[in-house]
């Protein structure tokens, strides 16, 4: 249904681009004897120029995109980028689940526990989005990679201050950031510091048709609310030493700490069947997370033909939470008191190095190695009415050690003025060892990933080019998926059975990595004024897809009778394909027949269409989980004439869709929509006031899990609009 309007939109855009290109061509033919003007500029490259010069397909977003809406969380910036979705703090590309997307910080894998909501955009220099992997970075990127480049030391003195207020529910919250940067001789320093707080309201309605502990039909309607709130700070200091003309040493740190709370309550009405043990519940969760990391990098160019890069890093993290739940019956008498306590510690280090050699006049060969080791210690205990929920398991510590090593080689080959290629080979090994009650296992995996990228330029200036990639990537199971220790659904005590709608959960130590063979093909058109248009297609064939199975197990170690259990397993094969369109730039250049060249209006838009199929699941709708059939983004920015103010809006939309999860269960996900706006007032050369609105006119998030026997779990989660105002000052 959507292909027809898509075709019309592409046709109209192509006509306008052709008209713009024709005007440029006509100017060049007006005087064929005129010499071409050569201009040397010292200005920084724009995002489009950096994207055009990359040896592989990559989208780049710099300070303008990061500052535009006055965001205080990086996740809010990413959700507006083409082909990117953010759900529950998890980043998804090409509609695939968060685990398929790799997140890097300065080119290195993000540490365990890293959350995009912990990073203030003021600490970021740029964001690089790659759809296909390269050999010098981990190939755990089936959907793609997001590389977060933290701020570097500026060339001149920089002192920026931002203070803001935001409002979502019942009271405003504060946030702010300060960045100091300077360079003296061979020493450069930048110190971005941010503090943040949040407070919001979620309201939920749930309708569940299922079975009670005796197996009788039961339908429950639940109304609930919760208020997540908290505060924290982070900083990312960086020091650069220039030891010589071609020799540098860089020290990069990152520290984050946040304290969080979430309080809420639910009220349940029985529409059919027996009354649960509790129908009036309240809960409070509180805890903290802190992380600190430091990296040292040494670069040396020995000659015009040789250079080396060495990295070393270490860091650690701690977290703790305490959840208290109180349930009461219809008479108001407390019947359930449950407390869940948990804590975790992460420590790790990494070493890497790569050597680059220019060979002849057309080859740049790089070889390197990486080693990373992470350890995690965790404790968890659940008490119900003062007793352990799982005696002999609760409160028992377990630990896991993950060792990752890699060797790689790559060759960037300038075949001809119009042709260039990138060839790479990477071998990555991951070893996981875990010990603890119910979680002792060893897992080893090794993946060889060949990579090939090819670029063709239609003209030497590379205004138009075609990119093609044939790559292999993978996703290793995480520790939580491997741990065989059960998580009990507390609505159904282990003294009796549970239901399909409320299964227990357990990991699978026998999981293997998911492997993907991918093909990408894209056409990119860059206009002389900085505008660009691209259209691309992709295909991924995945083997060993990890999916949760739902089975009734007659005998389990944690209960006397049969229990429904959800467990991750490797399926045989899945595939996904897609079409991706993107354009951005000045309206007068993109559509010269509709807008004057001097119009200070920038446009951007994207449309992504996806299709996927899981072989071991019977259709229809046997698509990959969380992958919507299509998504779109639209946006514009306008600078007022005569006054130094600007404004803009961004719109994102994803339709509703259904996924056949297993032979027994089916998931329906409702439409999602986002509408953000900003207004920027320039008060003086040093001061600005920015107003922002996020999630204007929000729609409810609706999910419905349906089971073959007629049971279902329908949840509607309502959200509220965020309002913010920020004062920005440059000293």
Automatic annotation (TrEMBL):
Major localization listed first in the record, in broad terms: membrane
One GO process term, biological-process aspect: siderophore transmembrane transport
One Pfam family here: TonB_dep_Rec_b-barrel
Superkingdom in the source lineage: Bacteria
Keywords noted in UniProt: Cell outer membrane, Membrane, Receptor, Signal, TonB box, Transmembrane, Transmembrane beta strand, Transport
Residues annotated as signal peptide: 1-20
CDD domains: ligand_gated_channel (cd01347)
Annotated TonB-dependent receptor-like beta-barrel domain residues: 248-652
SUPFAM superfamilies in alphabetical order: Porins
GO MF annotations in UniProt: siderophore uptake transmembrane transporter activity
GO cellular component, one term: cell outer membrane
Localisation: Cell outer membrane
Transmembrane domains' residue ranges: none
Topological relation to the membrane, as annotated: Multi-pass membrane protein
Gene3D superfamilies referenced in this protein's UniProt entry, alphabetically: TonB-dependent receptor, beta-barrel domain, TonB-dependent receptor, plug domain
Record-annotated TonB-dependent receptor plug domain positions: 52-145
PROSITE patterns associated with the record: TONB_DEPENDENT_REC_3
Family per record: Belongs to the TonB-dependent receptor family.
Protein name: Iron complex outermembrane receptor protein
């Amino acid at each position: 249904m959507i292909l027809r309007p898509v075709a019309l939109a592409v046709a109209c855009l192509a006509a306008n681009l052709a008209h713009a290109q024709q005007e440029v061509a006509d100017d060049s033919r007006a005087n064929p004897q005129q010499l071409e003007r050569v201009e040397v500029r010292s200005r920084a490259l724009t995002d489009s120029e950096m994207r055009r010069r990359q040896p592989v397909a990559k989208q780049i977003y710099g300070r303008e995109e990061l500052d535009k809406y006055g965001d205080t969380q990086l996740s809010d910036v990413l959700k507006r980028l083409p082909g990117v979705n953010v759900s529950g703090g998890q980043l998804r590309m090409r509609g695939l689940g968060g685990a398929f997307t790799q997140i890097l910080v300065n080119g290195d894998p993000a540490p365990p526990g890293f959350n995009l909501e912990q990073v203030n955009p003021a600490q970021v220099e740029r964001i690089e989005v790659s759809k296909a992997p390269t050999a010098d970075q981990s190939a755990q990127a089936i959907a793609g990679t997001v590389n977060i480049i933290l701020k570097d030391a500026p060339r001149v003195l920089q002192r920026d201050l931002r203070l803001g207020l935001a409002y979502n529910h019942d009271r405003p919250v504060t946030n702010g950031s300060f960045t100091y940067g300077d360079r003296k001789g061979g020493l450069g320093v930048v110190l971005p510091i941010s503090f943040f707080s949040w407070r919001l309201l979620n309201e939920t309605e749930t309708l569940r048709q299922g079975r009670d502990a005796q197996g009788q039909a039961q339908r429950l309607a639940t109304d609930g609310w919760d208020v997540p709130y908290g505060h924290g700070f982070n900083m990312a200091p960086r020091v650069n030493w220039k030891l010589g003309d071609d020799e540098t040493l860089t020290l990069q740190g990152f520290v984050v700490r946040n304290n969080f709370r979430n309080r809420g309550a639910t009220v349940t009405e029985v529409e059919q069947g027996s009354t649960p043990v509790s129908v009036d519940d309240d809960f409070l969760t509180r805890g903290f997370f802190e992380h600190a990391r430091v990296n040292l990098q040494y670069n040396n160019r020995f000659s015009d033909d040789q250079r080396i890069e060495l990295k070393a890093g270490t860091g650690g993290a701690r977290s703790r939470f305490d959840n208290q739940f109180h349930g009461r019956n219809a008479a108001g008498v407390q019947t359930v008191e449950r407390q869940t306590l948990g804590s975790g510690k992460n420590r790790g280090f990494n070493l890497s190095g790569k050597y680059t050699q220019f060979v002849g006049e057309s080859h740049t060969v790089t070889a390197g190695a990486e080693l990373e080791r992470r350890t995690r210690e965790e404790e968890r205990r659940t008490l119900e009415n003062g007793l352990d929920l799982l005696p002999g398991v609760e409160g028992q510590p377990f630990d896991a050690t993950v060792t990752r090593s890699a060797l790689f080689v790559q060759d960037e080959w300038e075949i001809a003025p119009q042709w260039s290629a990138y060839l790479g080979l990477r071998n990555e090994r991951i070893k996981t060892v875990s010990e603890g009650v119910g979680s002792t296992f060893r897992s080893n995996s090794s993946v060889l990933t060949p990579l090939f990228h090819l670029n063709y330029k239609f003209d030497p200036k590379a205004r138009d080019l075609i990119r093609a990639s044939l790559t292999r990537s993978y996703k290793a199971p995480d520790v939580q998926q491997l741990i065989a220790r059960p998580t009990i659904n507390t609505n159904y005590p282990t003294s009796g059975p549970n239901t399909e709608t409320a299964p227990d959960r357990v990991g699978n130590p026998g999981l293997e990595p998911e492997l993907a063979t991918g093909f990408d093909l894209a056409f990119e058109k860059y206009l002389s004024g900085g505008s660009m248009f691209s259209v691309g297609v992709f295909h991924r064939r995945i083997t060993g897809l990890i999916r949760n199975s739902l089975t009734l197990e007659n005998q389990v170690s944690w209960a006397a009778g049969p229990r429904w259990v959800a467990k991750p397993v490797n399926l045989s094969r899945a595939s996904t394909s897609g079409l991706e369109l993107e354009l951005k730039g000045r309206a007068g250049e993109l559509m010269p027949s509709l807008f004057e060249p001097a119009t200070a209006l920038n446009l951007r838009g994207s449309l992504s269409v996806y299709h996927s199929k899981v072989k071991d699941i019977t259709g229809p709708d046997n698509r990959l989980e969380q992958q919507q059939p299509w998504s779109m983004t639209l946006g514009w920015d306008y600078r007022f004439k005569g006054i130094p103010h600007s404004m803009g809006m961004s719109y994102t939309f994803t339709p509703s869709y259904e996924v056949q999860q297993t032979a027994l269960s089916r998931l329906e996900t409702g439409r999602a929509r986002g509408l953000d706006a900003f207004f920027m007032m320039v008060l003086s050369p040093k001061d600005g006031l920015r107003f922002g609105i996020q999630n204007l006119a929000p729609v409810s998030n609706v999910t419905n899990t349906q089971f073959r026997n007629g049971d279902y779990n329908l949840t509607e989660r309502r959200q509220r609009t965020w309002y913010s105002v920020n004062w920005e000052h440059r000293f």
